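Weekly modeling sync, notes
Attendees: S.R. (lead), two postdocs, one rotation student

Agenda item 3: backlog of single-chain predictions. S.R. asked that every request posted to the team notebook include the full sequence so nobody has to chase files. The rotation student volunteered to paste the first one in as an example of the format we agreed on. Action items at the bottom.

Example entry:
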Amino acid sequence: MSGRRAIVGERISLIPMKRNAASVHASWAEWMRDPDVNRFYGGPDAATTPEAAARLLPSLSGHRFLIASNGSGEWLGGASLHDVDAVNRNAFIGIFIGDPANRGNGLGGEAIRLLLGYGFAALRLHAIMLSVHADNAPAIACYARAGFEPAGRRREWLFRDGAFVDKLYMEILARDYFCRSDSAGIGGIGMADPSAKAFLETLLGRYSYRGKYGPAPVPREDLRAILEAGLAAPSGCNTQTTDLIGADDPALIARLGAVIGGGFATAPAAVCVLTRPLIAWGDTVYNVQDYAAAIENMLLAIAALGYASCWLEGQVTGDPAVSGAIRDILGVPDGYEVVAYLPGGVAAEEGGRAKKKRFEERASFNGFSRGDPIG
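Predicted structure, as returned to the notebook:
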């Protein structure tokens, strides 16, 4: 799945790999020519030329990243979550540091922790496994420090440098990752409760996606869960002014997509948000606050389920032709206003969270303060 954002750590970041970029092909080939990288991660069929890398990389599946230095921007190596099993919620992890000068200083360990955070919090995986040569002692120690435990051995499975070598398997479960003290993750969340931590990881990692979507459908149970999240939102005086319509019928989605346009039209599912300006108390109505809360709940549910979306309101309410067309397609009766449209599905392009202002520029404790350090 693409449509991912960079995963930023203390010293390094994981940058979604652009597998068709010539610069990536050149770096990959250079790394694979290193004897250690080639022996442990490449093998006889390794892509040691840019041309070979150009053929190989686009064929690789899974979530592929480049490891980049936060200081210099230099590409340091590669990392991946591959062989992802969405049904059983597991995957394999892979990582290497290309230049020998960058090994042995903890960068690989940081990359593993970032990738585990992404896998367990963003992808909602339950288990992550890896394989490693039995004679790669530095890698085995690095994985063990990250929380991986032995999970099996294939005896004399690999033939390298004229000798047979065992292949080891190691694994880590989500609950073990979240209970570790060093799994701070996005935003430096440090509480011990795994469910609270996973929720805040999802909340802080969510972003608005404006690209095209892949063809994979959104299962009805997922779409219902998204709608239920919206209905669970608070409403002023419990007037419950927000109604929702989930759409997953391909023909219906095609008609809605023709109205919405752009990459949003490629989403395999959508939620249409309706409101009624009912009086909640006195002569006050809270329907705008009501549907805003419902939309935020649904956006978080969409992210938690591994999908992408974007809050489309201005182009719906700002153009009577658009809102009118949606009303006609969905058969919305009089008395309801069409106020928002949430496309949903698996992202097919790169995406990322918009840059936010620093905490100190927008928040403070015990009084108004901006720009000063907060104690």
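Discussion: group reviewed the output briefly. Residues 184-192 have pLDDT under 50 and may be disordered.
Action items: rotation student to repeat for the remaining queue; S.R. to check formatting next week.
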